[in-house]
Amino acid sequence: MKLEPRVYIVGAGPGDPDLITVKGLNILMNADLVLYTDSLVNEQLVSRVGSHAKVLQSSGMDLEQMVDVMAEAVLSGKSVARVHTGDPAVYGAILEQMVLLKQRDIAYEIVPGVSSVFAAAAVLGAELTVPDLTQTVILTRAEGRTPVPEREKLRDLASHHCTIALFLSATLAKKVVKEFVEAGWSEDTPVAVVQRATWPDQKIVRTTLRHLDSDLRQAGIRMHAMILAGWALDPGMVERDEHRSKLYDKQFTHGYRKGQAAND
Length: 264
Prior knowledge:
This protein is of the alpha/beta class. It is 27% helix and 19% strand.
């Protein structure tokens, strides 16, 4: 497979090396230069790089150094796989890379990956959108050293009382609980935390808002964790008949099936 001379920004998935897309793996195996986030991307995945490729780790580089290396390769007719963890569109810090590449007229393409939020839901066996309970998922993070826009304070987002997925927030558990409670959430609201989802050493903590901070401290979870909060995380709640989808209800008519009467 011959790749075009360009930068391919590839989502590597959450950790399990088999959770990269087929397209992403093909690019990884055929690229001339592979630049990857070595603190997060599984080394087993990197081992699948073609023998002809040059492989570089990005953790010791700043933005300009990374772009210089990628641009130089493309201008010399080579293909570049810039490999990010999860899906690069969510907290992937790819925008600044694309801006500088565009300024240099360097072609690039984004290849999506499996986000840690969906990997966490999978290992928990959870559906994040449950009929008549919540039909919305908010992806956000708690405000720490990096601010969030004024209209996106966690307390305001939590006022919607839907499922909320928190990236990059494990060290801010006390703040998270405070903002949820101020938004009217019960301290008994179920919360699930998955650290390093799909990695061999993944940790799962099921708790409530009341015990979130103490349970995370006891588990030693400080980073690489996804926090999922809301009643969709309560198995007892979601298994009730009233939360069944209309899609498979025999009384529900849609474009592919006519519904049956209740007494049929």
